[in-house]
């Protein structure tokens, strides 16, 4: 299971890679820092939905740091 699919692994300020809605077909990863966690449930099979500091919204596919 992808570590980004469990809400307990995601924290505000974490450096992550997300897939934007428009990039779901290509799987292109956008990297940034988590500003808000948007998924309310404890897990999601496609990744927890977050908003990055630049305003981008997508599902977490990679976690780059654990700060």
From TrEMBL:
This is YwbE family protein. It comes from the Archaea. PANTHER family: YWBE PROTEIN (PTHR40069:SF1). Pfam families: DUF2196 (PF09962). InterPro entries: DUF2196. Residues 45-67 are annotated as: Disordered.
């Amino acid at each position: 299971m992808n570590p980004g699919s469990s809400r307990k692994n995601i924290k505000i300020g974490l450096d992550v890679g997300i897939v934007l809605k428009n990039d779901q077909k290509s799987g292109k990863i956008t990297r940034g820092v988590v500003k808000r966690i948007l998924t309310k449930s404890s897990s999601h099979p496609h990744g927890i939905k977050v908003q990055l500091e630049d305003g981008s919204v997508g599902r977490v596919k990679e976690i780059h740091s654990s700060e």
